[in-house]
What we know:
With 458 residues, the chain is α/β, with parallel strands linked by helices. Helices cover 28% and strands 25% of the residues.
Amino acid sequence: MAARAWWGEELLDRGPEDAPLARLRGRLTRGGLRSGARELADLFRSAGIGPGASVAVYVPPGFTLMRTLVGLWSVGAQPILIDARAPLGERERLVALCEPQFLVAAAVPEGGDGELVEESPLTVSVRPGGRPADEDICLVQFSSGSTGVPKVIGRTGRSLRDELVRYASLDGMPGRGERILLLNSLVHTVGLIGGFLHALGSGAELVLPVGTRIGAVLETGREAEVHAVFGIPLHFDLLSRASGRPLRSLRVTMSAGEPLPEAAYDRFLERYGVPVGQIYGMTETGMVTGDLTGSKSRAPWVGYPAGDTVELKSVDSELHVRVDRSPYLHGHADRYAGGWLRTYDRCVLDESTGALAILGRLDSVVTVGGMKVDLAEIEGVLRGHPAIQEAVVVHSGAIEAYVGGEGLPPSGELIRWCQRNLSPAKVPKAVFTSTAVPRNRSGKLLRNRDLLRSHSWE
């Protein structure tokens, strides 16, 4: 295959050698990224990785992962980004599906409890019989899999560049000299593109949390005097409840993945004096709408179309996004037609302003006894109970609720709460309780019944 230019080479050339790019326990400068990526590029070439090679990447989030991706892109290879912390069986299934030619791996430290790893020694192995990369796909990722098997998604260099322009267009997005406390995983799309690649292009510095306890995360942000916090709703909920001094230098936040409960939004605003900004997108499309100012970031609103190239439409209250090709590398042909991608998200589009509200999943509306029931409505009622912090409702022959919180009352009392606030057809037949509802590695609540049932419930 002919040599493929690195889609983001110009990003790497920005800024002086000693300009800070990221910090964890140590520091990574732009010069450190450049030199480290060159060294890895030489290692990859010596192993036979070159233009058009497909490479599965199992590297824990940290500095080595950043250098690995840049090194692979610089030799024209296609990274297939797999979470190194995923169970071995899941990683093997994804590799069998994608059939890469090479594997670049680093061991995940035992007992690390998800902590980030600055430096990880790499091993490179050849997979005989693997398939080369699709001609113009420069990154392969996987959907969150919160409802089942992850989808395989290919991104072109053009789509990544366009998304970076959209991030830069958001009012308040951090720029040169500012510091971002990045709580999103570098393995997933917001952390990788809105975090690492945006910082690379804008001159901002990433501050990666030392430890996973919310107190340690908050202390990291205070010591670094961060100007921004990027995360998921769970992070902002925990930060809103955390004790200790707030982040005095904080001026902007960005939440992604799912709606932030109104109570958590209000607590965070009261504690830090900054609204929680919201973005919306999919791994398939990248970020498409956002509002970091707070005017349209309170759920269910998720901001306005970002930049000049985003096209959205509502078809029978379902959101469709204009994309130039199907993002799926394996199946799902029914989700893309005529240049439009079905999101399966129910929405409201404000025609006068372009603002978008997400009302839940299309598949959250089920039929019970001939009556249409919105499972998202039941979740909202459950979250209205003072002891419930999280709720997921599924339907598989009957409505079941899975709720999390501290000091929860017995299930029977929660069912009576629903009976007082819902019509009979909407009341769950069973409520399962725990201190927390399980989440996947991107931080989204699990919505697959079989996966939920495998968790321990009271």
